[in-house]
Amino acid sequence: xxxxxxxxxxxxxxxxxxxxxxxxxxxxxxxxxxxxxxxxxxxxxxxxxxxxxxxxxxxxxxxxxxxxxxxxxxxxxxxxxxxxxxxxxxxxxxxxxxxxxxxxxxxxxxxxxxxxxxxxxxxxxxxxxxxxxxxxxxxxxxxxxxxxxxxxxxxxxxxxxxxxxxxxxxxxxxxxxxxxxxxxxxxxxxxxxxxxxxxxxxxxxxxxxxxxxxxxxxxxxxxxxxxxxxxxxxxxxxxxxxxxxxxxxxxxxxxxxxxxxxxxxxxxxxxxxxxxxxxxxxxxxxxxxxxxxxxxxxxxxxxxxxxxxxxxxxxxxxxxxxxxxxxxxxxxxxxxxxxxxxxxxxxxxxxxxxxxxxxxxxxxxxxxxxxxxxxxxxxxxxxxxxxxxxxxxxxxxxxxxxxxxxxxxxxxxxxxxxxxxxxxxxxxxxxxxxxxxxxxxxxxxxxxxxxxxxxxxxxxxxxxxxxxxxxxxxxxxxxxxxxxxxxxxxxxxxxxxxxxxxxxxxxxxxxxxxxxxxxxxxxxxxxxxxxxxxxxxxxxxxxxxxxxxxxxxxxxxxxxxxxxxxxxxxxxxxxxxxxxxxxxxxxxxxxxxxxxxxxxxxxxxxxxxxxxxxxxx
Length: 617
Known about the structure:
The protein is 6% helix and 37% strand.
């Protein structure tokens, strides 16, 4: 019965001719100023700018469908000191989409989702107004600010560019603090950037950007969070006149801190690891793509962005270092200080039918020729600011950094089906250097086993040696931070050749243009699905003084557990992405907590529940 139900709801999610019962559509406009709960037995239509105001919490059930009105460019804005809890599940994600009919949806049908917080930004004065027209302000002094959580959420056909540098993106994160939790989010067909961060410190895992118009990941204004596991997939014929990239990163501009005199206290310095970015060039001689594509990674205006353990495929240029004007802090100088790191990455499939013949790394000054970079990628730049390196090429190929360059995706990195927009599969094949490698020890060949951890032990003729051709590093760079899950692979996906490798399966949608969203799910239906369910969730003793126990049983679930105070601020992460099948127990240390009421949240693919616990002293 379970398999039949899963099959049915898979059909619902991709849109078939199934007849659905009548349901209510709730029009939402203006401000939400009291705590509000959107349920999955009805749909919601955003009309114009919809503001969730300070002190208000919006909770959205898994499986709920929210549509943005095209005529009024419906948008959802979570203002400072408000919260959103939109926690879907793998089988029943929350869906933000266009209100246009099947087959008629397109880029920028509605505004998008904007979250504003109180974390720092580098604008002068520490505050700014959101781009694109909303009234909302962002910025503050609390890097741990909590705006709620989004998980298993799809955002389709958002992104309105009202004018240059005045746009609403798919998911816009303005000074969002690291008390906010973001994971398993897909932004598709955004009319501007898929994701843009303006300052803040929020972290995220498992982000998908599909067929966006401008940039996939755009970081600005002092953003310093961490992101792991991202799949970025481009349509070769959809690019923006400003120049489209997988990553675009800026730190300083008019109205912000300058970064002069070596002051990097307000620099943009996000850390990305395990990203797979698929660009428009199916092979290095491709001419069938929009010429407004620029580069896989464009770091400019003094940014200190770091990209680690990642794969960049099929862009007109791989890494583009763009040196700032003299009015702002140097971009290239961040390399010498190791503020900017580019390590354990693969670049492949850059053009060979251009001058120079390969553009794996490029260097320009103050945006010069940044739309179509033509500089030689050697180490002959006059006035080179690449301290410690002869120039950009020696930086990229510095042996300890373990970057690799392959001529083509097909003969180099070897992913399963990266350019298939109807059904993209970015998992490495069994012959990919991500998932395969050999080394000989006195005539004995050791072959990498992707089911086992990396091991550099060469003793005993390499008996325990287990390293792929292109290996990640979570020790000698910024990925040593405890936020990052230590993988034995670079890029977003493991290469074990099991069904679990592709974490996009089951909740992503790669044909939202033709998906039938004329239905509602209902809680009773969701509860019939067994996988990912959690039962008998209990916290005891309650009240508690020194410690408490969490217990439940789970069915093939990937669980995360967090503890928050009553205002929603994160107190501690108890477990993250732990696979459970059967009984589970975990002890919470309460010795360092003040007396009061706290919230314990347990979340899985198909379950989300919160219980209160009272701490006494």
